[in-house]
Amino acid sequence: MKQNSVYDCQIIKLPKIHSDAGNLTAVNNSSDIPFDIQRVYYLYDIPSGAERGGHAHRNLHQILIAASGAFNAVLDDGENKKIVTLNRPDYGLMIVPGIWRELNEFSSGAICLVLASEKYDAEDYFRDYEIFMDVKS
Ligand code: TYD
């Protein structure tokens, strides 16, 4: 996690099955994404102007998907920053361990769907930016 950079956080194109009655995206462990999914969660009913995130993870890999609407992910590896706009349900942003992230600019009705490589573990979080920076330097 120490060496991971924002350039290791890539957009992954997910499969889209199109029909005249709408689209469908299915995500299969290890083939459509590079890890086994242990947990799925989603952010919704996000008030205008709210920011989420504000932390980094020690071991967790995640894929963020704008299942509805749009939002920005601001990624920071302690040296470089990258802002990624997510606004399509068939694109996911892979975030590797050791990346500070803020989520902002949520559109009305946005849903941020997260596929995670581990079950919830409060000990996996860095919630203090100074401590995160110490570990990355
Ligand atoms: P947090 O990860 O800080 O949310 P975000 O990054 O979207 O701002 O989690 C918010 C709260 O929800 C915190 O009290 C921990 C809890 N939580 C769980 O209980 N299980 C989970 O899988 C997640 C992601 C959070």
Task: Spell out the key features of this protein.
1 helix, five-stranded antiparallel beta sheet, 137 residues, mainly beta, binds thymidine-5'-diphosphate, globular, single chain
Tally the helices. Answer: 1
Through-space gap between termini:
11 Å
| Helix fraction bin | under 10%
What is the tally of beta strands?
12
For the largest beta sheet, what order do the strands appear in spatially?
1-9-6-11-4
Oligomer: single chain
- Beta-strand content: 35-45%
Mean pLDDT: 97
> How does the major sheet shape up?
5 strands, antiparallel
Listing every helix as H and every strand as E from the N terminus to the C terminus, the arrangement reads EEEEEEEEEEEEH
Characterise this structure:
- This protein has 137 residues and is mostly beta strands.
- It is 6% helix and 42% strand.
- It has one helix at 129-136; strands spanning 11-13, 17-19, 22-24, 39-43, 52-57, 62-68, 71-76, 81-86, 91-95, 100-104, 111-116, 125-126.
- The strands form 3 sheets. It has a 5-stranded antiparallel sheet, with no helix packed on it.
- β2 (17-19) and β3 (22-24) form a beta hairpin.
- It is globular.
- The relative contact order is 0.30.
- The chain binds thymidine-5'-diphosphate.
- The site of thymidine-5'-diphosphate has 6 residues, from β4 and β5.
